[in-house]
Amino acid sequence: MSGQKILVVEDEPDIRKLVHYNLAQERFKVIEAEDGEKALKLVQREKPHLIVLDLMLPGLSGLELCRNLRERPETSQIPILMLTAKAGEADRIVGLEMGADDYLTKPFSPRELVARVKAILRRTEMQSSHPVSEVYEKGPLKINFSTYETIVRGKAVRLTLKEFELLGFLVQNPNRVLSRDQLLDRVWGGEVFVDPRTVDVHIRRLRKAIEKNDRKPDWILTVRGVGYKFHEKALEK
Ligand code: CA
Hints:
Rossmann fold, 2 domains, 8 helices
């Protein structure tokens, strides 16, 4: 992860330097922009791995920049961590809807910022580690990661995006005990305010969608007190 390039977009020099310093300590390559226009140019030229983006910028605002980057195919995949002075729930949701991957409210601790940056990069690394055309097929279960289709016993099942991502992570880590925290980290990534019980709710829905008998699951097993395990061998039966 070290050596990856991070663009910091922030008009306040003190905060920009603080973020720069802390990321550089972790061996990230850091580039800076003090406004949205300069940031756009830098993104095109430098192709950063992640952008730390302040919401309140002179000229082009952080939200406008975020939307702009998401609309262009060549920049739509670059993860964005948004910084804001506003702690309101509405602002958080607007930021995430505009395509930010995570959200951090000022004042923030540099350690937390670094942790969030790493979590987002880990998540995107994992997503990009499968080629887009990859298909998982074993026994009655077939998953197409490029079309987001899931076929169980010959029938297409409808899953929400999170359920699909959860299933994807389970099948890619077969027969391993995965804790709720691991699943939260890998599937929900840096999303804030996610309760560990969210995992249980999604597992329950996923079982309903794919298991023959969701009360006696064969594939997604509960590991008491820890989390879950995808029992791949059961697909061979
Ligand atoms: Ca600012």
